[in-house]
Every structure is written in C-alpha cells, then in structure tokens.
Amino acid sequence: MTPIRSAALIAAALVTVASCGGSDDATDATDTTAPETDSPVAEGSSPETEPASIDAPDDADSTITLLTYESFPSEGTAINDLLAEFAEQTGIDVEILIAGDTGTMLSKAELTAGNPEGDVMWGIDSTFISRAIDSQIFEPYEAAGLGAIPSELTDLVRNGEATPVDFGDVCVNYDIAALESLGIDPPTSLDDLADPAYKDLLVVQNPAYSSPGLAFLLATIDEYGGEGWQEYWTNLVDNGVAIVDGWTAAYYEQFSYAGGDRPLVVSYGSSPPFEVLYAETELDTAPTGVAESTCYRQVEFAGVLAGTEHPDEARQLVDFMITPAFQEALPLDVFVFPANADAELDPVFDEFAVIPETSREIDPATIEATREIWIDEWTDLVLG
C-alpha cells in the first residue's frame, strides 16, 4: 500500500464507527473484559470521555446527549448532517459524548446507572448486551418502526431494553492476487486455516483486546464446541498463525494487500467494498475476498439510558436512528449494515460486501457468562 492510499484509508477511518462496527489503536487496552470495538476503517481514540457537538438550530427547545464509542463519525459526514436535520425537525439538539471503546463505555454506564452521563447510548454490541441489560442501564422502550427490523435481531433483546441499529460480520478476508501468486485456493472453512497449505499465512487479533479478535474466537467456539476449540487453536498455532493486538496492526501492517506478508486476515464482510471505494484507481472487482463460512455476526444497539432527564426526547432519537434515511447512511459512514430491512444499500455494498444468509452467533447470555473464562483459556493456550 502506498503512503497516499494509506493516508486516504486512515482519513476514512476518522469518519466511522466500528463494531462493528471501530482507534488510535486500542492495543493499549489491558482489561480483558473490555475488548475494543475496532472496525474495518477505525480503531478509536482516547478512552477518556470526549464531548463533541452537532450543529443545530440556536432555538433548539432542548438538548440531549448521545453517548457513543470512540470512532463516531467526524463532522461533515452524512450521519452528522442527519442529526442536525433531526434537531431542525424536532427542536432537539443532539450532543455527542465519546466514552472510549465499547467495554469502557459500558463500564462507565454501569458506574452511573440511574444517573447517566447521557440520554441515549449507541454501540453496545451483542457480545456485551446481556451485561448491559443485567446492569439495568437501559430503560425499556419499543421504538417506533421496530417492525422493519428482522426478528433475528430484535430477539436478542426480548424485553425491549435496547433497539438493534446495525450489524456486521467478522470474517476471514483474503488477498486474491497474493493467493493466486502462491498457487493456493482461498480458504472455504475454518478447518482450512489449520491445513499445512495455509501455514504462516493467517493473522488474527488478540480477543482480550480486540472486538474482531473476540468474534473470531467465538466463531471457533461455535464451530468446535466448548471442548474442541482449544485443540483447533493449538493446530492454528502449530500452523504459524500470527497474533497481534488489534485490527489496525493486523490489516495495515500484516495483511499482504496492505504491504505485509500474510494474505489471510480477520476483518469484516464490509472490507472488500471499502477497498473498492478507497482505491487509488477505479476498480471493477474487489481485490480482497471473504471466506463466508468463517463469519461471526455482531449486532449493535441503541437504548434510552435509565434515569435520563429527557426520556421523551431520547425515545425520539432512538426512533430516528432506525428510520430508512439514517439507516442508509450507516454503510458509507460506518461500514456496517442497516438493521432496518427497508433501508437500501449503496450499490458498491450490494456488489462487493458479504452478508451471509446464516452467520455464526452465540447467545449473548452465554457469552456474558463465559467470556472471561474463554479469554483466559485462550491466553494460556496461545500466548502462554
């Protein structure tokens, strides 16, 4: 990757929210219970809470605060413009409060439950939603327009504590040209990654620090079960898997398409259209591909924070976040997919993104009960 292209991608990173959704690298994290949310184009900034304002009418009737994670899109993007339109239409000004990565944001919300820093929170994903519900940080609310969101997303929150806003899939990506030069077919399964044909070709993220790293670990647990995933990871280690702390180090430093020497990387189903959109020259085909059977689904939620002094206004914002207009801005600004089934995708996502018909998932309550155990076992097995 040339410096110009790298700079363009980094600039794009500054306008995105990750999951799945996105840091000045989150590799500085040390809390194994709070991996960062790093996205195909962002890995946030400081974990300190940072305010930012959305331009809104001077005569706004009230102001509410949207508490969100570190890679919220910068000013001048469609999402920010839409929030300004929301303010014009409703008289409700929206201020953005950045609260660090997903785990840090949730930890802060737990400490202030009932007396929140903001009014609405956006960015808790399906690996943390059970913890958020158990901590009672959200006020149950059934958003207007919820009927347009598929049941497989709404069923993750059965009592309306939060509203699905977006989703994305963490998948193994591959450098098409690099594999062709090696005379190797792209992998089609998790099993393939442990095959000697793919020795020293894969880079993954540490699940203690990285949201996609955790998602990939969960994909292997889903595939091989509670007693079999450890052997699989032993086989990956024997096959030369590289471990890095975060998505940026994996994709921009190790992945061969970005100039590294490994043609397989854990990234996102939305990474191929990202490469098409930000290529130095116009591309007719994506230069990277996705091993669809490896994908693990992440869903992100927004919810009204319990104890808000502006519950009616907060509910209106949640309603707005699942309207088609807001939803259709998500892919290009955040590189995640809209939860609203009526929202239309930009053609580049229709053509190049991978959205599996069935993606791997583990029940959020099971993840919450076992996450730390799995991460500790992984750490001892892979890094110990």
What is the tally of beta strands? 11
Low-confidence stretches: 1-37, 39-59
Count of helical regions: 14
What would you call the shape?
globular
Name the CATH superfamily classification of the largest domain: Periplasmic binding protein-like II
Number of domains: 2
CATH architectural designation of the largest domain:
3-Layer(aba) Sandwich
Strand/helix succession: HEEHEHEHEHEHHEHEHEHEHHEHH
CATH class of the largest domain: Alpha Beta
Radius of gyration based on Cα positions: 20 Å
Mean pLDDT over all positions:
85
Strand content: 15-25%
Main sheet characteristics: 11 strands, mixed
Structural class: alpha/beta
